[in-house]
Amino acid sequence: MNAKQGNHKPxxxxxxxxxxxxxxxxxxxxxxxEAAGIFTMLLTxxxxxxxxxxxxxxxxxxxxxxxxxxxx
Length: 72
Hints:
72 residues; alpha+beta; 4 strands; globular; disordered N terminus
């Protein structure tokens, strides 16, 4: 692992359209808010869903990589 990578997962792990364990694709998410590791997301269908990932920082990086609006 080089110094630029640090503790971050490789880019391909956050650049995909789907996140392991989360039942919706990135194109279905409009915006999100996170508190205490619990993510609440508004989907394009206007449905609100909650997700508690095993690794909150990795999930947040996935959302931000895809330019999902963080309303925290």
